[in-house]
Amino acid sequence: MTDPAPATLTFTVGEADTAIAVGSGALPVLGTPRLLAWLEAATCAAIEPALPEGSTSVGTRMTIEHLVASPVGQEVEVTASSSYVDGRLHRFTVAARHVSGGAPGKVVGTGEVTRVVVDAEKFLGRISPPS
User: What is the pTM of this model?
Assistant: First the structure.
């Protein structure tokens, strides 16, 4: 497996992305759970092209700081860069920034996401369905 290349994704904050909609607050601004999901999506975009056939990765640890509010309509660019690799473990430095609006380039959030490469079939085979 080769080292993951950096990845960048862009999202626009919609009503479904707000703290109100995702249950993490009472304001119509980007909710922290959605920010985390976008940052994790960037790590997936970075690692997917480097994965062996039949493998996928799972998120195992996330540490983020959500620094500024992003209103509905705000474009947010999220990036993930590989910062550490040890066998199946991959750690990424992640960041989010405003793309446009009143403060382009303003840092929305930063942090670290850890993913572990697994064999997809074996991983799913170990999961018991609910009874």
Answer: 0.93
